[in-house]
Design goal:
heterodimer, A: about 450 residues, alpha/beta, five-stranded parallel beta sheet, 18 helices, B: about 270 residues, five-stranded antiparallel beta sheet, 9 helices, globular, binds flavin-adenine dinucleotide, binds iron/sulfur cluster, binds FE2/S2 (inorganic) cluster
Chain lengths: ~450, ~270
Amino acid sequence: MRKNPATLEMQKRLSSFSEVSLGLTKEQAKEEAGRCLQCKNSPCISGCPVNIQIPDFIKMIKEDRPEEALKKILEKNNLPAVCGRVCPQENQCEKACVLQKKNMPINIGALERYVSDYASQEQGIIENKAKKDKVAVVGSGPAGLTCAADLAKSGYAVVIFESLHQAGGVLRYGIPEFRLPKKILDRELEYIKSLGVNIKLNALIGRTQTIEGLFKEGFRAVFIATGAGLPQTLGIPGENANLVYSANEFLTRVNLMKAYQFPEYATPINIGENVVVVGAGNVAIDCARIAKRLNKNVTLVYRRSENEMPARAEEVTHAKEEQINLKLLTQPVKIITDEKNFIKEIACIKMELGDADASGRKRPVPVKGSEFNIKADTLIVAIGQNPNPLIPALTKDLAINKNGTIVVDENCMTSIKGVFAGGDITTGADTVISAMGAGKKAAEEIDKYIKHNL
Amino acid sequence: MFTILENKPLNSAVNKLIIKAEQIASSAKAGQFVVILIDDKGERIPLTLSDWDKQQGTITLIAQIAGATTKKLSQLKAGDSIAHILGPLGHPTETEKIGTVVCVAGGVGIAEIYPVAKAFKEAGNRVLSIIGARTQELLILQEEVKRFSDELFITTDDGSLGRKSLVTEPLKELFSSIEKSTHTKYPDLVYVIGPVVMMKAVSDLTKEYSIKTIASLNPIMVDATGMCGSCRCSVDGKTKYACVDGPDFDAHKVDFNELSQRLRLFNTQEKTVL
Ligand SMILES: Cc1cc2nc3c(=O)[nH]c(=O)nc-3n(C[C@H](O)[C@H](O)[C@H](O)COP(=O)(O)OP(=O)(O)OC[C@H]3O[C@@H](n4cnc5c(N)ncnc54)[C@H](O)[C@@H]3O)c2cc1C
Ligand SMILES: Cc1cc2nc3c(=O)[nH]c(=O)nc-3n(C[C@H](O)[C@H](O)[C@H](O)COP(=O)(O)OP(=O)(O)OC[C@H]3O[C@@H](n4cnc5c(N)ncnc54)[C@H](O)[C@@H]3O)c2cc1C
Ligand code: SF4
Ligand code: FES
């Protein structure tokens, strides 16, 4: 039987922001590791975007050598405790696992988390020899952190510039405490700093300093990893009403600024009793589960059916356990406000599924005459994020695609020589691990570029 | 950490802080602002760059006590520090030479108009400034603004200094005297900053005369890097993020009613802390 980690009891879950998944115990982990067939061709590895040597580290767990297992993972992945918690393994390594055929793939995610939690993280070795070439990384999300760590390991002096007052990108401001405790993130950041990476906070590149200015300061190359931080809007009347939040504002207030601990933390969050979240990705589910913990009645509104929900399976399960109402096949069309411009109701229309669209998902079409209203005193719009437009807008000659992503060639280089980019800023909103994959690839390319241009 | 070199009250409600912040001072421009976070449990609040000194590597912020964070700020001493300051933020004000510019400000908005008036003047414009406050005691930076204005008009609500009127009165008179005269021209630009009602009144007036007017908007901000959408305003029927698209906008196109309603979003909650 596949071993799944226990979860926090419901009472505690809804009354706190404590982590929901409790992780595997040593016995469970060893047993789960024992199920692995150690396949010669290891299909699981090909399912992993950063090629972690999965069977090897699983074997080390089985033999109760978690420290070595950690070293094995760190060869490829600088953020194992994060990935073990937030990667959609069901679409990656576990999907490729041979035991998937029996519907019982190895719980690779839980094992990865076990290793990183269990083994005390060793600190990196800071190279003593003077580091010559300086590389600037813009943005401290998973793409930036990975690129910086890999470059530091290859002997570069790396400075990360981050506009917020804390590092981590979405891992900090987006993903909530009960899914990714910030202590865990801090520990991963300590590891990356121990490799010699310098993180400069409160530095908005484009304003505090420009890309051009970075080269003048002596940086040999720049990696842009500014993510997809621009909220998409519904584009319906009333969207600027009071208590209509973008997911980003809601998440930033609660996660980064800790509004759930107001007034100990000074930033407030103002939400009503009946909270509606629109969307069905990880972001929407996170917003809904946070609102639930703030003791609210929460409804998730989505225009397709449950099958099409893009969020990680585990999160959807948790959301349902936490009694978040799902209102599927429903699309908001208008926000109705009171005389002070606070949201009062949402006018919606029912949808039905038609033919598949370009993404292969069935296209939702409105059902004529099916309009109805939902009572809501707060709306959180979580229907997606676009690439962050600030650097493209403030950097001459940086080419962007129609959808706002930065253009890069097969070597991750942008239209400006020596400037590289990767992660959500080049792909649009994606996943932690694909951003890390991009950071890794960029680190290799930057290394080649600098060596070539000595 | 950013060290406070000086923090002195300009009156009972407004403080002036000089802070060491070399990098920000080196690239600051008129019309830009910063976001400060006093300590890690604090709130991020936006404040205009009222002045800066590239040589000394310092910036000047002028803050009115509005709630918990600005109150705490007013109590800090020289030698204390502010954990985080991000900036400079926002588009700098376009201050090239265009002719005659009228700068209108009310209350703590005077701290925000000062660098703008100065930049317009230094670019070679004729600058008329109209500054107003509730009462004499609350009127700040009179001398500083005067230094960069060809003419300065002062108004107070209670008549304790200058004219007993709103800032719109001298503006109205200016326009009607120009209307009657054969040799004077309307100003080329009006720049306004202050409470929303004031900006709206000025904007309504200049609209009648079709005089180009820029307002510097002050919606509630969180990240101030264009990520959260808290600062969204309707300009010409389109949603704009004041922190990155502004804070300056064509006043005649701004939905001031929506802005004032959005500014009241957190009123009840912050009160519980004070
Ligand atoms: C709520 C939420 C939940 C998610 N859940 C999951 C999940 O469970 N699993 C998963 O795989 N993925 C998840 N994702 C997606 C994943 O987090 C992102 O794909 C990933 O973080 C992208 O990494 P990145 O490094 O490209 O950018 P980001 O993580 O967005 O980091 C970009 C950083 O750059 C900074 N920055 C931006 N502009 C500038 C500038 N001009 N100067 C300096 N710094 C700047 C930003 O402040 C930010 O810190 C989730 C996303 C969200 C929002
Ligand atoms: C671009 C910009 C420049 C500004 N420049 C100055 C300045 O130079 N001097 C000055 O005194 N004030 C300035 N303000 C206003 C200042 O940011 C607010 O007074 C301050 O945030 C109040 O915080 P508080 O915690 O003390 O009060 P709170 O009790 O939090 O709020 C009091 C009122 O201030 C407004 N406010 C609250 N939080 C914010 C926020 N995060 N962003 C904007 N407004 C908010 C709301 O209307 C609120 O009702 C500026 C605002 C903006 C947007
Ligand atoms: S595919 Fe599955 S069973 Fe085979 S080595 Fe990988 S994890 Fe083990
Ligand atoms: S303050 Fe967040 S987008 Fe402007």
